[in-house]
Amino acid sequence: MSLFEDAEQGRSRREELCSGAVVLRRFALSDETAILAALDGLMAEAPLRHMVTPGGFRMSVAMTNCGSWGWVTDNTGYRYDAIDPQSGKPWPGMPDVFAKLAQEAAADAGFEGFVPDACLINRYAPGARLSLHQDKNERDFGAPIVSVSLGIPAVFLFGGSRREEKAMRVRLTHGDVVVWGGPARLRYHGVLPLKEDYHPLTGGHRINLTFRKAA
Ligand code: MD3
Ligand code: FE
């Protein structure tokens, strides 16, 4: 029997980072093909774009959304919007495979009945990063956020409730799902600049989906 039996069998494995934050290693692997096919369709409707922060900086991460609400930033600030400002149309609907995966992961981590109404899609090319921030544009911090990592690996920074607190580093790889709720929900977090790598399904990119209850 191997020490890496779970990995070899493609089974999920749970790691608790702290109270409220659970990594479900490889949880999304069995849905990888369906997820990537759905992404192709919705990115044709709502293309990835580099948004601008209220401070005037172009984000290195390319983003789009699906679901009833989409997270956007521009020179006026951050917000959830039902309309894609680039197309003037509602965001693409949330694919069933997305909603089901997010709900099952949340339930696995102890958050029964999570129904996301927003999914932010982040695409990282080598060098792209996300500086330390809190997610606080959502109305109800009682709902968790579920994140799904696909493609090449990233080093995720998981800080405290104050920006100055030392951040823990967590490597997230293809298929990993993380549920952030309860006391972890408002902690600072970010992503270190992505290193060049290759994944057969995403090429030189990392894609991260974050499922939220925005309204
Ligand atoms: C911890 N995305 O889109 S996902 C974001 O990998 C974002 O693209 C990162 O941070 C990414 O806002 C990290 C993990 C994550 C998402 C939300 C959190 C961790 C979180 C909310 C609270 C605490
Ligand atoms: Fe975030």
Low-confidence sequence ranges: none
Enter the CATH topology name. Jelly Rolls
The best one-word shape is globular
Largest sheet: 7 strands, antiparallel
Q: What is the annotated CATH architecture?
A: Sandwich
Radius of gyration: 16 Å
Helix content: 10-25%
What share of the residues does DSSP label as strand, in percent? 25-35%
What structural class do helix, strand and pairing data support?
Answer: alpha+beta
Overall description:
The chain is α+β, with helices and mostly antiparallel strands. The protein is 15% helix and 32% strand. It has one domain: Sandwich (Jelly Rolls), CATH 2.60.120.590. The protein has three helices and 13 strands, in the order αββαβββαββββββββ. The strands form three sheets. It has a seven-stranded antiparallel beta sheet with strand order 1-2-11-8-13-6-3, with helices on one face. Strands 7-12-9-10 form a four-stranded antiparallel beta sheet, with no helix packed on it. Strand 4 and strand 5 form a beta hairpin. The N and C termini lie far apart (48 Å). The mean pLDDT is 96. The structure holds N-(carboxycarbonyl)-S-(naphthalen-2-ylmethyl)-L-cysteine and fe (iii) ion.
SSE layout and pairing:
Blueprint (H helix, E strand, L loop, with lengths): L4 H5 L3 E6 L2 E5 L6 H14 L16 E6 L2 E5 L2 E5 L14 H13 L9 E7 L5 E4 L11 E7 L2 E5 L9 E5 L4 E4 L8 E3 L14 E7 L3
Antiparallel strand pairs: 1-2, 2-11, 3-6, 4-5, 6-13, 7-12, 8-11, 8-13, 9-10, 9-12
The structure holds N-(carboxycarbonyl)-S-(naphthalen-2-ylmethyl)-L-cysteine (MD3) and fe (iii) ion.
